[in-house]
Amino acid sequence: MLAPPKFNDILLPKWKAALEEKAVRNTASGKWVLIDDPRSVVDLDRVQVEQFDTTGSDITGTYETVRRFMSKARSHSYTLSAAHAKELLAMLPKDRTLNALIVGGGTIGPGIDDLVADPRVNLLAFDVYDGPNIDFVADGHDIPLIDESIDIIWIQAVLEHVADPQKVAAECERVLREGGIIYAETPFMQQVHSERYDFMRFTALGHRLLFSRCDTVKSGVVDGPGVALIWSLRFFFGGLFRSKAVGRLAGLFFTWLKFFDHIIPENQKQMGACSFYFMGRRRGRSEASVSPKDVLKEYAGI
Predict the structure, then answer these.
(1) Structural class in CATH, domain 8-224+264-296
(2) Which segment of 1-10, 51-60, 64-73, 91-100 scores lowest on mean pLDDT?
(3) Are 118 and 94 in contact (CB under 8 A)?
(4) SS3 52
(5) What pTM did the predictor assign?
(6) Distances in Å between the alpha carbon of 182 and those of 80, 84, 282, 293, 298?
(7) How far apart are CA 191 and CA 228, in angstroms?
(8) Using CB atoms within 10 A as the burial measure, which of 43, 228, 241, 286 is most buried?
(9) How far is it, in rounded angstroms, from Cα 110 to Cα 106?
(10) Which residue, among 134, 137, 132, 124, has the nearest Cα to 45 in the 3D structure?
(11) Is the dihedral of CA 35, 39, 41, 43 positive or negative?
């Protein structure tokens, strides 16, 4: 069986062949599992039968509703990323279809409503687990799409959860067309979440260095020290009372702290930010990568 028109033309030949030969695993909901790298941390047997995220939490129903409510209460990401989605759509051609790929799209991230609603956008999403929001299961270390086939990459709160973020960023740049836009949000001052599947944190420049084949369109703080403090208090009270539920309630109680981020100057926020964003435009094939020396010039802290 061939892939649906939504991404049939941009699937890697090896996966087209595997689908024709009926040699591809399916999830319980019928989604294709496009993973064949033995080094992947994905449990292929489990992903075929469950709609769980990496922590084992059911991503449907009540859990997802509560998660989104609590996330929106304590983070600026919903308003900021929505504005950034509008900006990147305005920078791209208006006379053709735009292929947009959400990496880690099993959970609906903040700000993607404009991507979903734009009639130009052919929206694709994948994650390492099955769920109603994805088109296929795949591993970001080995994206199953051909080179330069995507106009927009949207990767939100993902790079901290992958074993090799440099490899995932390189894969994103591989499938991104020249002139295409990548938008990433990644934490810095943030406690462990998603249990064992939480590996990395990035400063603003560390985040920038991941995307060496892109020129910076804009970058900066998503959530500042106010939200970082909410995270700390959430885990402080959760640890003190040995209860995740108490921690979450503490996080809600202290949501007012996020408003201090509006009065802290940007260069000060850079020093203790909870998370950063990067929006970049893919360089041409013949252009050299951005050097670490050039990245240093983008430093925006005190």
Answers:
(1) alpha beta
(2) 51-60
(3) no
(4) strand
(5) 0.92
(6) 15, 11, 8, 22, 18
(7) 9
(8) 228
(9) 13
(10) 137
(11) positive
